[in-house]
Amino acid sequence: MKKSFILILLLLPLFFYSFILPRPTRVISTPGSAVDSSINLLAVYGEYIFGRQGCIRCHVLVENTVPGKISLDGLGGKYTNDWHYMHLNEPSMMVPDSRMPSYELLSKRDISFQKLIQLYQQNSGDLVTDSSAIRRQLSDSMQNIINKFYLPDSKKEALATKEIMPLIYWLQQIKPSPAKKISDSIRIESANRQYANKLYLWKKWMNDHKSEFYQTANSRQKKILEKGARLFQRYCTTCHNKQAQGLIGPNLTDVYWLNGNRIEDLANTIRFGHNAMPAWELVLSPEDISQLIAYIRSLKGSNPANAKVPQGVILSD
Ligand code: HEC
Ligand code: HEC
User: Fold this and answer.
1) Residue 273: CB atoms within 10 Å
2) 29 contacts: CB under 8 Å, gap ≥ 6
3) From atom 41 of ligand 1, which residue's Cα is the shortest distance away?
4) Which one of 41, 54, 171, 279 is most buried, by most CB atoms within 10 A?
5) Cα–ligand 1 centroid distance for 48 (angstroms)
């Protein structure tokens, strides 16, 4: 009886310490200890830079909340990491006449560990006494995002400690708000409807050889050929060459054709593309395409110098 009483007396302080005294905040002290993985260090730091740089002067994060401000709602995944990198360094390189200021500075400035640890403590309630686990976690997540850039390796290495990286990482996490999801689905629906209308018109033109489309494509009028030539110089010469004599794509001035030479064949190749030939339906209007066809047809027998070897089969008109 006496023995157990002494035992209880001995254990009492321990009991008191572990249940009654307030518990100290969790302390990260051993080098091997883990960082609270629910806290995304890069995102937390990225959000901090967004605030510190005053991006919010011109931007909102939820669509349609402040008129005149540019919404970044649902931005994540809209562009590549490299796009953001270029845009933040030199906005006008990615958006002609952009009014956004350059944030070149962020590619030069190192991430502040002191700030990062402060942000971590605020978010987790943990007290950090040893920052090595945080450093390790940061460099691991940094490696992950750096691998998603197409920049040359030397450039990536130089950026691995810079503030621009967590900012880009955070921008890529901005998910669409419910309102944005609805407005996107309405936009997609109306785009689909427009496309269905367009398909209907194409069908109508293709079935009617007296349609405006056919008349233009068949035309030899100087004005139409000039318009076609201008479009050709703008969009087609990288592959078909200046006089359409062929380069990556075939010579369009000879009698050899891979995909047919009737107006509907040319229209289909240009609209939908074929092999390495890109589709132009979403870039060019039907009017553009009919002018291009007229121009291509007018080149028959023009015998340009350095013509590419014939491809396809001989087709007379
Ligand atoms: C003085 C106003 C201004 C400030 C400050 C500003 N931006 Fe912009 N931002 C713009 C304008 C204007 C555009 C639209 C033109 C463009 O894309 O460059 C834009 C576009 C963007 C886009 C592309 C949006 C899209 O959907 O195409 C991103 C991303 C962006 N800004 C990020 C930022 C970040 C990050 C900051 C802070 C570091 C910032 N901006 C600060 C004016 C600003
Ligand atoms: C990225 C390179 C590229 C561009 C740009 C390009 N083409 Fe082509 N084009 C090709 C290739 C490659 C082919 C051969 C396709 C195949 O293998 O059937 C081709 C085929 C064609 C044909 C069919 C030729 C045949 O023998 O049947 C036409 C017509 C044509 N292109 C017109 C155009 C027009 C008009 C433009 C500009 C609006 C254009 N192309 C832009 C690469 C290109």
Assistant:
1) 13
2) 129, 130
3) 55
4) 41
5) 16
Closest CA to 35 of 119, 109, 111, 112: 119
55 lines ligand 1 (CB under 6 A): yes
Q: Nearest C-alpha to atom 8 of ligand 1 is from which residue?
A: 100
Cβ pair 198, 205 in contact under 8 A: no
Q: Which of 174, 172, 178 is nearest to 149 (CA)?
A: 172
35 Cβ inside 6 Å of ligand 1:
no
Q: Which two tokens stand for residue 273?
A: 């593309």
Residue 256: Cβ-neighbour burial (10 angstroms; 0-12, 13-18, 19+): middle
The residue type found at 110 is D
Q: How many residues does the chain have?
A: 317
Residue position matching structure tokens 């669409």: 176
Q: What is the dihedral angle through the alpha carbons of 42, 45, 46, 50, rounded to the nearest 10 degrees?
A: 170
Lookup: tokens for 51: 């605030």
Distance 195 CA to ligand 2 centre (A): 23
- HSE toward the beta carbon, residue 284, CA cutoff 13 A: 27
Q: Atom 2 of ligand 1 has which residue's CA nearest to it?
A: 58
Q: How far apart are CA 144 and CA 142, in angstroms?
A: 5
| Mean pLDDT by groups of 10 residues along the chain of 317 residues | 58 50 47 70 96 96 84 94 95 92 97 94 86 90 90 90 97 94 91 89 89 95 98 95 96 96 95 92 92 97 94 88
**Is any ligand 2 atom within 6 A of the Cβ of residue 228?**
no
